[in-house]
Amino acid sequence: MHILCPQKSLSHSISIVQKSVSLKTTLPILKGIYLEAQDQSLKLIGTDLEIGIENLIEADIIQEGAVVVDARLFSEIIRKLPDEQIELKLQDNQQLLIKCTNTEFNILCYSAADFPDLPVIEEDEVHHLSQELFRDMIRQTVFATSQEDSRPILTGVLMEIDEDSLTMVALDGYRVALRKGKIDATGHHKVVVPAKTLNEVSRIMNADEETPISITLRDNHGLFTLGNTRLISRLLEGEFINYHQILPKEYKSKVKVKTRGLLNSIERASLLAKEGKYNLVKFSITDEKLVITSNSELGKVYEELAIQLEGADLEIAFNSKYLIDVLKVVDEDEVYLEFTSAISPGIIKPVNHDNHVYLVLPVRLPNS
Amino acid sequence: MHILCPQKSLSHSISIVQKSVSLKTTLPILKGIYLEAQDQSLKLIGTDLEIGIENLIEADIIQEGAVVVDARLFSEIIRKLPDEQIELKLQDNQQLLIKCTNTEFNILCYSAADFPDLPVIEEDEVHHLSQELFRDMIRQTVFATSQEDSRPILTGVLMEIDEDSLTMVALDGYRVALRKGKIDATGHHKVVVPAKTLNEVSRIMNADEETPISITLRDNHGLFTLGNTRLISRLLEGEFINYHQILPKEYKSKVKVKTRGLLNSIERASLLAKEGKYNLVKFSITDEKLVITSNSELGKVYEELAIQLEGADLEIAFNSKYLIDVLKVVDEDEVYLEFTSAISPGIIKPVNHDNHVYLVLPVRLPNS
Q1: What ipTM was assigned to the predicted interfaces of this complex?
Q2: H or E stretch at A72
Q3: Strand order in B280-286's β-sheet?
Q4: Which domains does chain B have, with CATH numbers?
Q5: Which residue of B has its CA nearest to A299?
Q6: Mean pLDDT of chain A
Q7: Which residues of chain A have a Cβ shorter than 8 Å from any chain B Cβ?
Q8: Nearest residue on chain B to A102, alpha-carbon basis
Q9: Residue in A147, A178, A132, A140 with CA at minimum distance from that of residue A259
Q10: Which residues of chain A have a CB within 8 Å of the CB of B106?
Q11: pTM for the model
């Protein structure tokens, strides 16, 4: 392998694939980035066997070939080089020469033949989605995935494609996040994508890009393509929980309240929680007024918010973390809170959109 | 105590004094901020018994008094309140009421009587210095203080005032940093200020401020005053090392080189060091050329820099960290490197200023 390419594009390409490189692994080659020079371009691949990211940049290929280099060292070297042409050349002694202006590195590398192949995904059915929408949908659901491995399926987000609609759902036993969006698709697909994968996809999306993201979903793997970058991930196996029957269809109290004001009040009320513990916040809902109280050995807090109430007065308590998580991802100015009783789930949804629904289980108080 | 004051100024004041509050202490009251309402102003104090910071803000005093509140909790509450008037009122039950628009907190507090007094410093001899200069002088010396407690005096920076000149010196047995500056002072003072104190002083200085910083040095304490903020610190006891006899007066090789280019080359060369180990970099100095090489089990690197050499060719090796530390704080475009032999200290100084001098011990190579 012998190539020339600009420092800037190589450094950018490394930053894209590096996130999927294993940091801790018993297989040393997985700490590496695979470089392949072919057809006037350089392909970079990183993988931890769960997620693989591939990025292609233009390069001047003097001799085709492939090699694997330690990701940490290679990225630090390239990042510290000046913004000039870089020469990469595989030497006979299995060292890679990295040359740029007056700097010459020779670093040890691995044989390309030992690097695992990424799964081949047949792109016969590709769905397209705007980056902005997909990033929002990820942000507005992924936080509600389970952090525990006891039920692996809940560490992922359900992606359900039905005709031109994509529904994403995450739940962890205490809350549900549901977000719908329009997609350029046909047919029906139902897969569960690991939260980590969606976070990575979100990271490689670029806010300025007009290009839609392309999604291909197979039984065991998902492929997300954006420009010169391809992210291939394993999908989670198993049946997702039937979320339709969890979401209540009716309510007895419906509160309209300013999103930001509610978030600020709950955040302040949760300050009295001791570190590491999430605080209980109590809602006391009466006509035109929501009072939030909380107390601990450190003191007590009382917050009052103006609301519009439709239906019955109510007292209900929540783990503040679950409410904060939801209110942080809602972009709309106002939300509806819907309640049935102090021991039934609460629903949060934006006032002007019916494409988000959040459910949060209350905390049962001794007297309720 | 009962006062009114704006959220913004209270929040800012807390951020100033909070840094001196003890995080880990067996004396719980030291985790607190002392608040004192008197004469139309609110005084905040934080201390860890080594450093005390006092800040004064304007407030509307309804009733004078003092109290101590948990620093972490109080700062988080005030920071999360809206930018409105805040009411603080000590209740009969030794709880502090914090009220702002529709929010009311009641938090437990400590008795003001239990808070330690800051030392009283007589301000009969005050020196003045521009903030910009003092911040530069701190930055350009404090990095060379010792991190080890085996010789406590070396964990501080010598501040020597002689007529209108301030000399600051730090050394740790491997390197020396010396920086001189003009000061509005008279007489002679020689004290050693803990590195931590100078870092705190640097932090409270505000780049936009025109006000000079006032310094009062007593035998055991130093007082640094800036606007409404006073920082009082213990000084280190003992005799500082006589740095005059360490700095060589002559040299056999004098190199003129671009600061940034040299820094970049050494930083790249040090990338081959394994984590946690500082890399050895070898200098090979010949007419008009400085070659820097380094190698480890990961590979090797060769860097070439254009220089102007006056005197003899030389081969010499250094711990790259010590060179990087110096080159990062030198603001001038070019530096002189002065050497006598491969086993004598190297000197680094900016080309156009004789008010900085840095000394770095070389690493003796097997063949030197």
Answers
A1: 0.89
A2: helix A71-80
A3: A60-63, A2-6, A85-90, A95-100, A103-108, B299-306, B289-296, B280-286, B314-319
A4: 2-114 (3.10.150.10), 127-243 (3.10.150.10), 247-360 (3.70.10.10)
A5: B107
A6: 94
A7: 70, 73, 76-77, 80-82, 95, 102-108, 264-265, 267-268, 271-272, 297-305
A8: B304
A9: A140
A10: 299-301
A11: 0.91
